[in-house]
Specification:
globular; PspA-assoc_dom; PspA-associated domain-containing protein; four-stranded mixed beta sheet
Length: 92
């Protein structure tokens, strides 16, 4: 799956890595629902770091369609809340 990290570019993430990303996405969603800014920031950074760790960066001139778009690390909790779908940022 192709993931776009807003402000950073695209990475290709293997399907077998999506379950661990979904667990981090659930933590992020819980932090947003509770309105806990500290937990939100921790969960968002953990999700983004994990994507960077397991993802393979695509060339800067690549124009692959992104299956997922993730917010930047400095995104506000309300911005990310508006991006959430029924399944969080990362669909099952």
């Amino acid at each position: 799956m192709i993931v776009r990290l807003m402000g950073e570019g695209q990475l290709e993430v293997a399907d077998e890595d999506l379950s661990s990303l979904n667990a981090l996405d659930s933590e992020l969603e819980s932090a947003i629902e509770s309105g806990d800014e500290t937990a939100f920031r921790t969960a968002l950074n953990a999700l983004l770091e994990n994507v960077r760790k397991v993802g393979r960066p695509l060339p800067a001139d690549s124009l692959e369609p992104s299956g997922l778009i993730l917010p930047p690390a400095d995104a506000h909790i309300d911005e990310v809340r508006s991006m959430l779908g029924d399944e969080g940022l990362i669909p099952d």
